[in-house]
Design goal:
Methyltransferase, Methionine Synthase (B12-binding Domains), Chain A, domain 1; 9 helices; about 55% helix; globular; binds 5-hydroxybenzimidazolylcobamide
Length: about 210
């Protein structure tokens, strides 16, 4: 089983768009759960691509092709993700911070949270804080969760401003705030006065349930 994960990660790292998708389909046919394929194969592959980019071994066009491979495989896997859809667990506003276009992880978290009974409004990428606050203020739901992502140390700083704006708007009492993305740590969450973070999509579902119960 582990071979499938390593092979998928390697194909993605070599920017093999169609072969990555084909290997995911093979893994599915072998009975491997879609979430495991995503987290142990594709996400690990992207992590390694990031490390190699940082080490100067890969360049932007290659990262873009790896992201394309990830997105194509996600088109196959996303519809197969199943969760507990029995009741509405709450209303979620999901977005990627202003200045940031990295949407792979946010899409994954939004899909998984949605597959687990939450109603998810996806605002997309490069979203100004003012838009998030407006959406939160006008939401009529009594359970409201903000799921924000930032992949860059620069865009992550916007999360601190967002917490300030939420407080100033007087809506902190009705909004729980979960932030994630590679640079986000528990220390950062404590510093900005948010409610939680999660390392990956399934941990994000657990945290969302915990915050909304
Ligand atoms: Co991009 N990029 N990139 N990039 N990129 C990063 C993020 C760097 C860390 C790479 C590096 O230097 N090592 C770096 C940021 C450095 C920094 O600030 N510290 C970087 C940079 C600098 C840039 C550009 C500025 C490069 C340039 O133009 N010179 C540019 C930025 C453009 C912009 O946003 N304004 C850029 C562009 C790109 C693309 C377009 C080529 C592509 C994005 C494609 C897309 O998303 N549609 C890209 C990619 C793919 C990456 C890396 C390689 C992978 C990111 C990724 O998809 N990971 C990334 C390296 C890295 O992260 N190590 C690199 C896989 C997903 C599954 O993981 O962490 O996003 P995730 O999400 C997880 C997890 O965090 C959690 O669950 C998810 C699922 O498991 N989670 C949450 C996420 N959100 C959550 C919210 C919650 O509430 C809870 C949990």
């Amino acid at each position: 089983m582990a071979d499938y994960f390593a092979e998928i990660a390697e194909l993605l790292g070599k920017q093999k768009v169609n072969d990555t998708d084909a290997k995911c389909k093979e893994a599915l046919a072998a009975g491997i759960a879609p979430l495991d394929i995503i987290q142990k194969g594709l996400a690990e592959g992207m992590k390694s691509v990031g490390d190699r980019f940082q080490a100067g071994e890969l360049f932007l066009p290659q990262i873009m092709m790896s992201a394309k491979a990830m997105n194509k495989a996600m088109e196959t896997l996303e519809p197969l993700l199943k969760g507990d859809n029995s009741a509405s667990a709450g209303y979620v506003i999901s977005f990627v911070q202003e200045g940031d276009i990295h949407d792979i992880g946010n899409r994954l978290v939004s899909t998984m949270v949605g597959a687990n009974g939450f109603t998810v409004k996806v605002l997309g990428t490069d979203v100004p804080n003012e838009t998030v606050v407006e959406e939160a203020a006008k939401a009529e739901a009594d359970k409201l969760l903000i799921v924000g992502s930032a992949l860059m140390t620069t865009s992550m700083l916007g999360q601190k401003d967002l917490m300030r704006l939420i407080n100033e708007a007087g809506i902190r009492g009705k909004v729980k705030c979960m932030f994630g993305g590679a640079p986000v740590t528990n220390e950062w969450i404590a510093e900005i006065g948010a409610d939680g973070t999660a390392e990956n999509a399934s941990a994000a579902v657990d945290m969302a349930k915990k915050l909304m119960c």
